[in-house]
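User: Hi! I have a protein structure encoded as tokens and I'd like to know what sequence might fold into it. I'm fairly new to this, so please keep things simple.
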């Protein structure tokens, strides 16, 4: 069996097979993307080809590119072989040992979770991402691997991924499409136990579409990818998975059908039965249909019952702060793409399917909203920061008419980043000394006190070396891109004059979209120039970012920056790096002193780039939006504007720009240059110490994944298992009651209501006409808003027993009379311990 642990090279794709089993061992290491955050194997790859390694840091590319002769020759070296075997053994231990999840939940009902996402950002070697959403997916997969949470990712393999960016010297963005050769990225065909490559089919607008399947290994977890570039397909179908977020709604819905329905089918073909599906954004919403379809077959039940059974096992994470962020599909498109599926597979008409994606199911004009489908197919919903939770409750409140905003059933789990991915060799050393090698694999309990002990010298050495390395990176990129643009000779600049390793370095890199306001710093160009050119306390600024291919406003923002640099010959102090990707991020978050973020509150759902600097001792300067609204305190960084408790902070753009300049000029810059005789900026270093020790643990994906596991995954698995086992007994009953409530709720009405104040209490007596609704299915409550926007006061009323006619009921209750009687009102809501409310039954009747 020994050999089975390692790849048989014949099974790989686009790789020269070898009789030599040792080559299979190398391939096994090179195809485990653990190398993207754990650098134990770096030296081995470097030995194969130092130059190629330094250029790419991509083991799979190195192994494929180096001549087979060289590989065979090295494999004859006993020292090399010994090293290889030791690394494989270490890898095996890391994969099979028990981790946080196994220790904390040894008897867990959660054996498998499928995580669906349109994009995954694991490493630039596998470019199937655009930005934030892929970052969240990739970093959470990696942390799940660290923690031993049994997750499998499901995504798409894009032949072109997202466009690559070139910028000409006038500032025009050009989109370039590079090709992802599946034989040259670290993926392999997904094979059935007998070795055959798994192909699956989905139905798409009357055609049967073949999908190829791929497998990515990332530590303990796997990521399965689907693509339609199978030669058996019609040429037009082969291109469906070409581009990420390319084309219009028709292409998008096809991709989403592949992801949701194809993704579920893939799991079924592999005999994998996850208890929980996590939908990262609404794109993968169709999976709730496919999962229900399978249950229909298994339990021989209707679609409605099947959806009811599977619902608690689905979790929906929403990522957008505006309605336009949701995918909407025209009814005709839905009919073309899914009409037949609705009728033949789900046994429901198109109208019922459409109803799942509409605010008003009766409105046949309304488009199909993927987020609404996800919400109606999931047993829990969450936003991605505290503030985004509030924003999301408002966004989805239209689906819960007459419910108070703070009872809209959407929670939040604040995103975090995978720290081992974003640290560098120098910060890694510091963290290892303070907190040990396994620091990101446990519950992080002792991290803060340990990090508080770091000396000023150690922190300043770290910052100095990181900044210097960044400066070298910026120089070499600058050199490369001015050569590419044919400008190298015109600029007449010595490369050593680009950036200064001792100058305060500000970073700003993100998607160039208007709500992120990448030009806020350009509001008053004179003032910015003044800061950049200060004789004693200068500033330098590195920028990067792509504008969406069709986003002219975003492109204009890039142009504004380029022209600002060109017109004022600021190349030595301001550099715009083209082709922002994960590799650039790694360098920037490692070296900048201050990471700047200027979104318009509350448009940034969370934001993650600023979290990446924490582990390296970078500091944040940001508007109070997304994660920063909950992370900021005056000791750990800087806020632009104050902590307004309104969602929109009410400041004009001009005022915010002014506050940003003031913050830089009067606080950030002076603090950086305020040095003790030994050259150390003590206040600055104290701020770094606080930011690293307090914020890095909290905004790590380790914390995020533990929170999802404790609060969402485990309850979801348990509720799903209960419902799925119980559908013949109690579960069936609840399902029937839910249907009854749907049919008869409108018939409930209030009868006589008496109130009086007796001593210290307001006393209520209410009669209620329930008609077909059984008294045990409802809860009658005395309700009052909490004046401070907190959770309302809710007191359950008692039913007066022994009524002859269950259609008429009387309820009594009392509340302390410390508020006026007029604050209180009576309401009736459904009542079930077994249902997520009001998510699964959103009826409500108010006295007034
Ligand atoms: C981290 C990252 C993002 C997400 O950053 P935001 O804070 O959402 O702007 C986007 N793109 C890349 C390449 C990243 O590394």
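Assistant: Happy to help. Inverse folding works backwards from shape to sequence: for each of the 848 positions I chose a residue that suits the local structure. Here it is:
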């Amino acid at each position: 069996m020994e050999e089975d642990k390692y790849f048989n090279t014949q099974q790989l794709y686009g790789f020269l097979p070898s009789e030599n089993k040792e080559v299979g061992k190398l391939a096994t290491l090179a195809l485990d993307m653990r190398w993207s955050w754990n650098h134990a194997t770096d030296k081995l790859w470097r030995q194969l080809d130092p130059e190629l390694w330094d250029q790419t840091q991509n083991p799979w590319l190195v192994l494929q590119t180096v001549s087979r002769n060289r590989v065979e020759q090295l494999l004859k070296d006993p020292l090399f072989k010994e090293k290889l075997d030791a690394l494989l053994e270490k890898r095996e231990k890391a994969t099979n040992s028990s981790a946080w999840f196994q220790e904390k939940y040894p008897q867990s009902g959660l054996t498998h979770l499928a995580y669906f996402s349109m994009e995954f950002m694991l490493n630039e070697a596998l470019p199937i991402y655009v930005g934030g959403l892929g970052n969240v997916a990739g970093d959470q997969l990696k942390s799940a691997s660290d923690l031993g949470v049994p997750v499998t990712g499901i995504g798409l393999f894009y032949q072109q991924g997202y466009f690559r960016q070139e910028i000409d010297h006038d500032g025009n963005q050009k989109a370039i499409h590079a090709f992802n050769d599946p034989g040259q990225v670290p993926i392999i065909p997904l094979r059935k136990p007998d070795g055959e490559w798994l192909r699956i089919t989905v139905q798409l607008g009357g055609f049967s579409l073949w999908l190829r399947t791929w497998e990515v290994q990332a530590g303990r977890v796997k990521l399965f990818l689907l693509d339609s570039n199978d030669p058996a397909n019609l040429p037009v179908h082969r291109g469906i998975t070409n581009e990420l977020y390319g084309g219009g709604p028709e292409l998008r819905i096809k991709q989403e059908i592949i992801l949701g329905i194809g993704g579920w089918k893939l799991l079924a073909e592999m005999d994998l039965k996850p208890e929980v599906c996590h939908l990262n954004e609404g794109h993968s919403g169709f999976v709730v249909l496919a999962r229900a379809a399978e249950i229909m077959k298994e339990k021989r039940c209707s679609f409605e019952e099947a959806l009811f059974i599977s619902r608690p096992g689905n979790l929906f994470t929403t990522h957008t702060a505006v309605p336009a962020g949701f995918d909407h599909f025209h009814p005709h498109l839905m009919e073309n793409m899914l009409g037949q599926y609705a009728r033949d597979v789900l046994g429901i008409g198109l109208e019922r399917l459409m109803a799942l994606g509409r605010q008003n199911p009766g409105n046949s004009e309304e488009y199909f909203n993927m987020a609404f489908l996800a919400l109606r197919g999931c047993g829990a919903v969450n936003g991605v920061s505290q503030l985004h939770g509030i924003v999301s409750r408002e966004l989805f409140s239209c689906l819960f008419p007459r419910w108070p905003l703070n009872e809209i059933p959407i929670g939040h789990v604040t995103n975090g980043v995978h720290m081992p991915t974003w640290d560098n060799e120098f910060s890694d050393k510091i963290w290892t000394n303070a907190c040990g090698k396994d620091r990101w694999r446990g519950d992080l309990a002792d991290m803060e006190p340990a990090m508080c002990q770091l000396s000023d010298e150690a922190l300043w050495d770290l910052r100095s070396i990181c900044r210097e390395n960044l400066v070298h990176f910026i120089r070499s990129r600058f050199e490369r891109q001015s050569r590419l643009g044919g400008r190298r000779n015109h600029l007449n600049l010595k490369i050593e004059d680009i950036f200064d390793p001792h100058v305060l370095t500000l970073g700003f890199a993100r998607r160039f979209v208007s709500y992120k306001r990448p030009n806020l710093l350009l509001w008053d160009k004179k003032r910015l120039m003044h800061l950049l050119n200060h004789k004693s306390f200068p500033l330098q600024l590195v920028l990067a970012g792509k504008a969406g291919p069709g986003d002219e406003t975003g492109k204009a923002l890039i142009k504004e920056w380029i022209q600002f640099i060109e017109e004022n010959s600021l190349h030595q102090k301001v550099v715009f790096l083209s082709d922002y990707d994960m590799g650039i991020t790694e360098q920037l978050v490692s070296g900048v002193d201050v990471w700047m973020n200027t979104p318009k509150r509350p448009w940034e759902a969370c934001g993650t780039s600023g979290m990446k600097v924490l582990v390296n001792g970078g500091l944040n300067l940001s508007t109070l939006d997304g994660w920063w609204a909950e992370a900021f305190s005056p000791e750990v960084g800087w806020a632009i504007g104050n902590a307004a408790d309104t969602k929109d902070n009410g400041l004009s753009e001009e005022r915010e720009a002014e506050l940003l300049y003031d913050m830089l000029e009067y606080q950030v810059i002076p603090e950086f240059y305020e040095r003790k005789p030994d050259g150390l900026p003590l206040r600055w270093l104290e701020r770094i110490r606080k930011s690293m020790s307090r914020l890095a643990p909290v905004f790590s994906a380790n914390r995020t994944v533990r929170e999802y596991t404790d609060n969402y995954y485990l309850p979801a698995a348990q509720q799903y298992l209960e419902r799925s086992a119980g559908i013949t007994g109690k579960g069936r009953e609840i399902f029937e009651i839910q249907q009854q409530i749907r049919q008869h709720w409108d018939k409930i009405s209030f009868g006589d209501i008496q109130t009086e104040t007796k001593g210290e209490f307001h006393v209520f007596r209410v009669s209620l006409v329930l008609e077909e609704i059984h008294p045990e299915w409802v809860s009658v409550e005395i309700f009052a808003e909490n004046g401070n926007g907190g959770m309302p006061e809710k007191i359950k009323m008692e039913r007066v027993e022994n009524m002859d006619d269950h259609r008429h009921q009387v309820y009594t209750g009392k509340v302390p009379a410390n508020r006026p009687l007029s604050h209180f009102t009576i309401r009736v809501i459904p009542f079930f311990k077994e249902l997520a409310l009001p998510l699964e039954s959103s009826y409500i009747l108010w006295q007034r």
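A useful reference point when you look it over: The mean pLDDT is 94. Feel free to ask if any position seems puzzling.
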